Input
Amino acid sequence: MAKNTDTPAPRISVIGTGYLGATHAAAMAEMGFEVIGVDTDPAKVAALAIGEVPFFEPGLPELLRKHVSTGRLRFTTDLAEATALSDVHFICVGTPQQRGSNAANTSYVEAATVEVVRNLTHDGLIVGKSTVPVGTAGRLRVAVQSNLPSGIHAELIWNPEFLREGKAVADTLTPDRIVIGGTSAASEAIMREVYAVPIATGTPVIVCDLPTAELVKVSANAFLATKISFINAIAEVCEAAGANVTVLADALGHDIRIGRQFLNAGLGFGGGCLPKDIRALMHRSGELGAHSAVSLMQQVDEINMAQRQRVIDLTLEALGGSVLNRRIGILGAAFKPDTDDVRDSPALNVAAALHLRGAQVIVFDPEAGTTAKKIFPTLGYADSTDEAVTNADVVLVLTEWPEFVSADPVRLLGLAQGASVIDARNCIDRAAWEQAGWTVRSLGRSAQPTAGRPVFVPA
Output
């Protein structure tokens, strides 16, 4: 619950109710605050008001319904009303990649901030949560001051988000750190009240300047992307040398300076954050003359994209050099499990590329089938693992959903036409599949099985 003091708890508005905003609004209500979520889309507002979200995120619909019912959370299209009723205004709108450029499009953040400022009826704190290029907040501060109504005081600070898709609710309620940038003593006190619940349980608070706060999220994503591309580069060495990259990663992961997470060699990263953020960092670093960062991110991106072609090459090899008119069972469309997000999904990219080469591609994903179909309607889609595998000449495991990892290879072999499986996530029990009669190929492991049982660690 919010702090119990003589001063009323701050009332909160959340501008933008997409993935970040809807989760943040629900979490703030769970922490005891009165929250109003604002969006320009009436249909989205109506859906959120009954606990429905247009994406798959475990636990979020239940949390929304809980606090809509308590009255602490509501949604509206009326920004002026929400601004008038609130004291702290979180900016949670998107910053998509600009068309024809690696730069982030900050126009939505700028527009939302200015609109909040123009509608202020009393002093307020504007808190940016969107991931923006460094320097954006400084420009927004100028816009805040030039658009303030007479007699009103407002302060703009930055509080980056660190949500993982599939774990967003927990990441908001029990974050591993809270970063607030550019605060005065007064705004820092307000933010410590807003986050009193996680702070009380020991979550560290990092107070810093605006540029540092802007760089934290994108730097974290750049580091994770680099870690993934590093192990994928080493995977190529492992294949050439006859080594096992999964066992190698296990050994590396025991070093506390390195850690095991994000060392799973395979198809690489995708989604709406890592690719966009490393490209935006690359662009902004170039503008600032920080060319070492540009070179590093360029190489990370290139290694990641090359993994998709390597899976296509393995498929061609398994089918004798051509996929034309061959049936390919694709297990996975989302960029990772526990989400229906197919933005820049390596799995869906590989499926589409094989389709363009003339393959009959049948895709199954436990949650992302509908979103995938909207982007690539010409692909074939199955309603189950069994349906995707039935009569397949080759099977590709492209997203490490638990039901694929635990699937019975003996039963699936009885359904398939061929006996080749490409484990593009190094997640299935290779020994069990080979014992069942499958020929297993994966990235970072030679065609012949090697000693050592893999230990798959979700990123």
Summary: The chain has a mean pLDDT of 94.
